[in-house]
Amino acid sequence: INNMLAKLRGEQESRIEFSTAMNLVIKRKFAENMSFAAPTAREFKDDDALINKGSRLLFFVPWRGHTIAGTAHKPYYGDAEAYTVTAKEIEEFLQEVNSAMPGANITDDEISFAYAGLLPMSGVNKQSGDVQLQKHFKIIDHAAEDKVEGLLSAVTVKFTTARGVSEVVVDRAVQKLGFGRKKSLSRDKPIWGGEVD
Fold it and tell me: Residue 91 pLDDT > 80, yes or no?
């Protein structure tokens, strides 16, 4: 949709900037029943951080006898539909993982899988080149921005806030459709399977 709207505006590129987000599945277990984070050797600068920790943390999560390690972020300026993970990106990220786990000496034949996608970013640190991920959701009303009536887009990076973002988007859509200001019942109704006393 983003690229289609860019073409409608007569623009070559989308207004939303993306970062890659890649995780590796390693054929080795580093911890039995717990996840942990480890700092990388490379310095990391976050323009939005109140306290700069100096390095980036990678997470290591046990999964089915393997370990998921992540997440690598790099600016991505290509067509979102054309994104694929390259062997070079996997190798670069493996070096970063090894810097966070000195002595582990993880080799490329221990990588069983790499999975990746794109996340919205707010920019790139000019000095370090580090990605600054978008930290707050944004709702785009395309009637105002693109003269396309009846289309709302939600741009967000956090799965953990998806339900709250969805509630805001649905409330906005209900209002735009002329149903008044009916409020969603989402806040009081548990997600199926998520009933917790």
Answer: yes
